[in-house]
Structures are given as C-alpha cells and as structure tokens.
C-alpha cells in the first residue's frame, strides 16, 4: 500500500478519529486528487471551516492508480473515510451496489443538479449517491492569429467546419488540425464523443444504446463515425504516429490552426503565449439543437459506515453550493461546475469553454455508462476500432458493425 493509502487508512470513519476535541467534529475526506491537496487545504477547507467552526475536515488523498483498491480495502475493513470521492459510472455503481454509500436523495442542495449531472453517480434505484463537484468539457481549440490571418470565422455547422479546414489546407502554411491516431482514447473522447452527440442527439442516442432501443449500426451513429473519418485529409503527415503530446506541441508551436482536446488543457494550450480561443462541436445543420460533451469527473459521497454522518452531510451540502463551486473550479482551470447556478471563471479560456454550455444540451461520453462493464468493453474497443478507421481504412459502416457485434456478445440492454 502507498504512503498516502496508509495515511488514509490510519485516520478513518471506523477509527474514532472523527470524535474531535470539545465541540469540534473531525471528518476525513478520501480522494484521488493528490495534485489538489494545497488548493483544498489552503483555500477550500478553510472557507468551509470558517462558516462551520464546529467541523474540521482532513484531506486524505491517494494516488489515482491506487485509489480504487485502497478505498475498497478500507471500506471493507471498516476503516474508510467519512466522505469519499466517487468515480463516475460503472465503478461507482458497483460501489453503490456493495453498500459503500448512503443515499443522498434528501440531501440539502442535491436538487441543484440536473438528472444528467447526477447520472454518473446514481444507483440501480436511480437515486443519487454522490454530490457532483466537477466536470470536464470537450471542444476545439483554435489559434486566433491564424484565423485572423486567413480571414476565417468560427464554424457553426459541419459543412462550415469542412470549409474552414479546406481553406487552411489550401493556404499551405499551417496544418489544419493537430490530430493523430497513435492514441485511440484521443480519437474517442475528444473527437467522436465531441462531434458525435450532434448526430445521435446526445442523451437520446446514449440512453438508447443502454436500453436497447438503438444500435451503433443505426444511421446516426454511422454518420458520426463517418464525420470523424472525414477529418483524415486535414491531419498532419505521419498522423499515424502522432501522439496526444505531439498534437499539443504542434498546436502550441503555432504550426496547426485547430486542435481537438478537452478543457483540462486550457493552461497547456496557452503555455507558449498564443492567442487561443475555443469553439464547440458544430451542429450537423444550421438551426439544429447543439450538444456538448460534459464528462463527470468528480463527485463526493457519504460512507455508509461513517460515525460522523451529521457533520459529513453538512460538508456535502456545502459542496453542492455555488459558494464551493466558485472557489474550487476557478482554481483548477478546465474543470467546471455541474450545478444549475452559473459560476464565473477568472481564466478567460476556461470562461470561453463554460460559455459553450449556453443553449447546449449536455451529455457525457458515449461508452462509459454500463456499456463498458463487460468484455470487450465498448470504451477500449472504440479506441481500437477508431484507430483501424484511420490506419487501415476501415469504413464507418464496418467499424460500427464490429462494435455492435462485440457489444451484443455480452451486453443485455437495461430496458
């Protein structure tokens, strides 16, 4: 077990550590955000404790690679933290089924989140078991200087997007889009799951796959895969060996005009001083409803065996508030509030990303809810199949057929 894991095990809900001194109750917060420890201890927790002087919060991170195993071991041995950072979708659903968390449907503040925001942390009863605290978005970064130089406008439809890419290619000075196929996850999460919802109508298509009313071989899904494949003529030479890190370098050196990426890279995308903007995935046709990928990243739940549930619930309700959101997500540029109350961001590119949510219907990544709980998981399989589309010339029709056949080999629709 790692040092962080040992620390987490040593001060826990079952150890009596929550009894505190005098009238102060100490609660422990288990999580995987080691990199955010200073932020929580210097900014977030002091703000909570100032408003709730009778509660002390101890931040106890474990490295992300060790986190799942550490939490499971601690919960099963009765030494788990009072509040627990929740993984989204299938991992957390298994933890809910195993009784790790208390139901939070009656928690003060939980009604400030939409059903879509809560979906990653609901149980089989469709009740929420974790408070959503942060998500990431996906879109297209663009070099404003290049766009100005070439007289380009932000595309709002796929036809306009293709025209913009073609204009950049025809100019010959820049690579139209920094995109490679060496990393399948990038093709899946930052391209297919970004532009795809505009074809399969977001939650309509995603939930349709889950309940069995839709198939990956349906025309809307095939069209989405084809739209991804259609980017190939605008990718760099040698794109087959271009990694995610290479794409970022190509963009930040000013050699590529556009980059498909997630919001978590708002700092990296501007590290070299470029004037960078972001636009959302273009609609298929003018006037169509826009969809935007919002991927749940972090939630926090209540350990069902906590000895300090009253204090823990006060903390969880505060995490559901705009007061918390305005502190936390503004300090980690590229992560966003999932609450219904708008939050302002001091990082201008983060604010541009947040503004993409206006008038858009939000939807998480296609593959991660239930559809990757078996073998082969749709998630990993999509990475590999998209690579064959770019590297081996597999058609969109054949790619979706393989994915559906493999999914049918183990998945029984929830409907």
Task: Give the helix/strand layout.
Layout: H1 3-10, E1 25-31, H2 37-51, E2 55-61, H3 64-76, E3 83-86, H4 90-97, H5 115-118, E4 130-143, H6 144-150, H7 158-171, E5 175-178, H8 184-195, H9 197-200, H10 203-211, H11 219-229, H12 244-252, E6 256-262, H13 266-269, E7 276-279, E8 290-302, H14 309-319, H15 322-331, H16 348-355, E9 360-363, H17 378-391, H18 396-408
Parallel strand pairs: 1-2, 1-3, 5-6, 8-9
Antiparallel strand pairs: 3-8, 4-6, 4-7, 4-8
Helix pairs in contact: 2-15, 8-11, 8-17, 11-18, 17-18
Overview features:
415 residues, 42% helix, disordered N terminus, D-Maltodextrin-Binding Protein, domain 2, nine-stranded mixed β-sheet, 18 helices, alpha/beta
- Based on CA inertia axes, which overall geometry fits? globular
Report strand %: 15-25%
CATH arch. level architecture of the largest domain: 3-Layer(aba) Sandwich
Give me the strand/helix succession.
Answer: HEHEHEHHEHHEHHHHHEHEEHHHEHH
Helicity level:
40-55%
According to DSSP, the number of beta strands is 9
> Which structural class matches the secondary elements?
alpha/beta
CATH topology of the largest domain: D-Maltodextrin-Binding Protein, domain 2
Question: End-to-end span in angstroms?
Answer: 40 Å
The top-level CATH class of the largest domain is Alpha Beta
Radius of gyration: 22 Å
Which superfamily, in CATH terms, is the homologous superfamily of the largest domain? Answer: Periplasmic binding protein-like II
Q: pLDDT under 50 segments (min length 5)? A: 1-12, 14-20
